[in-house]
Amino acid sequence: MIGDHAVSLPAYAKPSRAFDFRLWLGMPLGLVALLLVLDPKSLDFALAARFYDPLSGFIGGRSSWLENVLHDQVKIMVICLGVACIVAFLLSLLPLRLRSWRRELGYLVLALGLSTSIVPPLKTLTAVQCPWSLTQFGGHEAFSPLLGERPVTDKPGRCWPGGHASTGFSLLALYFALRDRRPRLARWALGFALTLGCVLSLGRMLQGAHFLSHNLWTLLLDWLIATIGYRVLLYRPAPQPAPTLAQELRG
């Protein structure tokens, strides 16, 4: 009877698939530590210099496709996805088919919302300058590292972490929302989120809006938010079998 009952559990009540939280949390935390210890300035400036021409500026600075399509239109599409998740979550409160997805939809609303809403206050708090604002790339502002003192200026930066990169990397939450019930679709969602985030990051780097490290920080923050949210809201560990009499006596 017990075995039959376990088999008949609905998908939303079954234990989660095996998941190594030490790996999924350790990797981004390790990279965070590296970014704090190893100054990424040399790599950031080397890459930015490849996208910059002293006469014409950044090669993507005047691209209407990068600005109108890859920036504005993609952002609108992801906003629409977020709104759709909110609507679906509200509908899941009713006795409809979406009810079985309530937890996953609630997780998506929170993870997507937090991943994108955390960026503006961090930009204001850190006041990091964009590449296009720096004297090395045709601007008028002085560079300072993330944890360094900011030079006095009338125009504080608003460029850390990368905001548009979060439009793509925030979708990492789709992987966690789907991994226990639709594993194959979850893997596609993971690949899509990483690809979109990287493409959007590159687009903004071509425009001179961000350094590579700005976007890498965004990836790590969104990665941590999605993973921790999954652990708190969705992860269901497999029940531990009851100890046998011999185990009880040995204990």
Describe, in short, the structure shown.
With 251 residues, the chain is an all-alpha fold. The protein has eleven helices and two strands. It has a domain of 172 residues.
Number of separate helices: 11
What value does the Rg take, in angstroms?
A: 22 Å
Estimate the global geometry from the Cα principal axes: elongated
Spatial order of the strands in the main sheet?
A: 1-2
Could you describe the largest sheet, including whether it forms a barrel? 2 strands, antiparallel
- Alpha-carbon distance between the two ends: 29 Å
- SSE pattern: HHHEEHHHHHHHH
Label the structural class.
mainly alpha
Total number of beta strands: 2
Helix content: 55-70%
What does this structure look like?
By secondary structure, the protein is mainly alpha-helical. It has a domain of 172 residues. Strands 1-2 form a two-stranded antiparallel ribbon. α2 runs antiparallel to α10, α7 runs antiparallel to α9 and α8 packs parallel to α10. It is elongated. The relative contact order is 0.16.
